[in-house]
Design a protein that fits this description.
By secondary structure, the chain is an alpha/beta fold. It has two domains: 176 residues, Periplasmic binding protein-like II (D-Maltodextrin-Binding Protein, domain 2, 3-Layer(aba) Sandwich); 160 residues, Periplasmic binding protein-like II (D-Maltodextrin-Binding Protein, domain 2). Helices cover 41% and strands 18% of the residues. The chain has 14 helices and eleven strands. Strands 1, 2, 3, 4, 5, 6, 7, 8, 9, 10 and 11 form an eleven-stranded mixed sheet that branches. 43% of the residues are buried.
Length: 348
């Protein structure tokens, strides 16, 4: 009788253990992804990914790309997230030197254009690209009978005084990209050019969100500056979110004379994260055709996956930059901090 009772208790314990194990296995696991504030994805796309992989994805917006990277570096021993998205080619060397990423050679890399793979150690994998250019408010220039500037030099003329808002290159990857465009164009004289912009009352703010949605007149309708550093792919934003249907964007980009800089954004798995397997799945997802085709009308950037198709609205209203400014990756890595420090000193 005693043995029978023990056997029954053993079966009950085993059943309870197996039930608990099964219950735990069925519970969604959590993945935390640190992003810049401009990150966006369609709800149905992320929901499908979560369901297929039995996980919950938590996004952690962390300011502009520069601010986000600073936070990630400071917390690298006890990371705030498992994955970081949004460091770009202007800040990439800082991320790699700080050694915040684990290497991961995603199988989806076979579908990615080789020109975008800048890190041969596969710690940072390319996700998208866009061309940083000056955008302008068409209505403002038409109503004021003012020609749209076509060169960097035009922006220093008196008629454009206080009409341009840019981002601080120390805190904003967009601002840094524009700074690098001037460096590529003017060479060693780029600081003298910035001093001329300062004399012409260029406005400097910390990040893209503030510049575009607060200062830019075409977006807010009330901002004081009719020109803003943004992207050649920004005009579709104004068509997509217009309160009334539009056939033409109220904004356009200045894409002439080397005035745009090509920016590439990357994703990486943070070292010391707690969900390596989930992180790999998410990186694969970001490089996949599904995510890549969702990006253009959410983040208004171009996909790097060669199989991804662009939506028609994006094709119609995004402006093509035939010859964007670039600087060698190693030159940016060697000089970026010194250039930023010199810019800060010049703009005091």
């Amino acid at each position: 009788m005693k043995n029978k009772l023990l056997n029954t208790n053993y079966k009950l314990l085993l059943f309870s253990f197996l039930f608990l194990l099964s219950s735990c296995a069925s519970q969604p696991k959590t993945l935390t992804v640190m992003t810049h504030d401009s990150f966006a994805i369609s709800e149905d796309v992320i929901a499908q990914f979560e369901a297929e992989n039995n996980m919950d994805v938590i996004f952690l917006p962390s300011g502009d790309a520069g601010s986000m990277l600073n936070k990630a570096i400071l917390a690298k021993d006890a990371p705030l997230a498992d994955v970081l998205f949004g460091v770009d080619n202007t800040f990439l060397s800082r991320a790699l030197e700080a050694d915040i990423f684990d290497a991961y050679q995603s199988p989806v890399l076979s579908e990615i254009s080789a020109e975008f793979i800048l890190d041969e150690t596969y710690r940072a994998l390319p996700v998208d690209y866009g061309d940083v250019c000056i955008n302008y408010d068409k209505k403002y220039f038409a109503e004021n009978h003012l020609p749209v500037p076509q060169t960097f030099e035009d922006l220093t003329k008196p008629e454009y005084k206080n009409l341009l808002v840019v981002q601080n290159p120390a805190t904003s990857s967009t601002g840094l990209a524009f700074l690098l465009a001037t460096r590529a164009y003017f060479g060693d004289d780029f600081l003298e050019y910035w001093k001329q912009l300062k004399e012409n009352e260029v406005v400097v703010v910390d990040g893209w969100e503030t510049a575009y949605y607060t200062n830019f007149s075409a977006s807010s309708g009330q901002g004081p500056q009719p020109m803003v550093v943004s992207y050649a792919s920004s005009p579709p934003v104004e068509v997509l979110f217009a309160p009334e249907p539009l056939t033409e964007s109220p904004t356009a980009a200045i894409v002439t004379n080397g005035m745009c800089f090509r920016q590439i954004e990357f994703v990486g798995i943070l070292k010391n994260g707690s969900a390596r397997n989930l992180a790999e799945k998410f990186v694969d997802f970001m490089l996949s055709k599904t995510f890549q085709e969702d990006m253009p009308l959410n983040m208004f950037v171009y996909p790097v996956n060669q199989t991804a198709q662009l939506p028609e609205l994006f094709i119609q209203h995004a402006q093509v930059v035939s010859n964007p400014s670039t600087l060698p990756y190693d030159e940016i890595a060697a000089n970026r901090d010194a250039w930023i420090e010199a810019w800060v000193e010049a703009m005091k």
